[in-house]
Amino acid sequence: MIDSYYVYIHVNPETKEIFYVGKGKGNRLTSLKSRNELWQDYVRELDGHFKTLKIKDGLTDSEALSLESQIIERIEFHYEDRLTNIDQTDNMYARDGISVSFFDNSEEKIISPRFATSTEEQIVSTLSEFPNRRNQDLLAFEKAMDSLFDDFCDEMDDLEEIDEDHFFDLEYMIQDLIEESSKVLSSESLKLSDHVEELKSILLANEDLGSADAFEVYYERIEEAIKELEK
Questions:
Q1: pLDDT for 160-205, tens place per residue?
Q2: Beta bridge partners of 56
Q3: DSSP string of the chain, one letter each residue
Q4: Of 20-34, 54-68, 85-99, where does mean pLDDT reach its minimum?
Q5: For the chain, does the N or the C end have fewer beta carbons within 10 angstroms?
């Protein structure tokens, strides 16, 4: 596939900290062009020396974008590695866009990069696999939250007019649920009971929505989706 894409990472050769995740084709993984300032600052500290690893190739553009996003989420939620990726989407709920990453080059160097003692083969193998995305119950919950969010977007103006406080409570709750779902889907492992309890705690913190006109339907849909996950 001449026009196929791949997903790659840039790694600190001394600490094995992953500091960038990207997608591209051709020689993009080694190119120094069109890199953001955070990336340039980090590489400058390395005197221009960094390692490149191709995680997976032979992908379509959308497949590469999705895997890139999943790897970024895993690093942000579960690793200490500091990314220099910059947000490229205004959609705070986006699953398959570039997530926001925070990097402060004034921070002390981290102590425990995830792959500090791993081989390149182990790094590639781990970042290529997302076992929780094979769990149909988790994917069903993700789909339910996506559908709920779409409906929320369609009714945003009406809901805000009905009750502004409840509107923002519902918005933040949806955001928290989507974030929790992304966190679990991006994890290397899973303890389903802990995930369910976290979802229940988010719901419980917003239980007043369960009796609020026009908002209770969203609360009930979330409640039902959690029950299905718990079966």
A1: 999 999 999 999 999 999 999 999 999 999 999 999 999 999 999 9
A2: 7
A3: -TT-EEEEEEE-TTT--EEEEEEESTTGGG--TT--HHHHHHHHHTTT--EEEEEEEEE-HHHHHHHHHHHHHHHHHH--PPP------S-TT-SSSPPP----TTSPPPS--TTTT--HHHHHHHHH--GGGG-HHHHHHHHHHHHHHHHHHHHHHHHHHH-HHHHHHHHHHHHHHHHHHHHHHTSSS--HHHHHHHHHHHHHTTGGGGGSTTTHHHHHHHHHHHHHHH-
A4: 85-99
A5: C
Q: 3-class secondary structure for 153-190?
A: HHHHHHHHHHCHHHHHHHHHHHHHHHHHHHHHHCCCCC
Q: Are 83 and 98 spatial neighbours (Cβ–Cβ below 8 Å)?
A: no
DSSP 56: E
Closest CA to 196 of 134, 137, 131, 150: 137
Joined tokens for residue 8: 């790659």
Could you give the percent of the chain with pLDDT greater than 70?
A: 88
Residue 1 structure tokens: 């596939």
Residues 6+ apart with CB under 8 A from 84: 19, 20, 36, 38, 39, 41, 42, 101, 103
Report whether 123 contacts 81 (CB < 8 A): no
Express each pLDDT in 152-169 by its tens digit. Answer: 999 999 999 999 999 999
Query: 51 has which bridge partners?
Result: 11
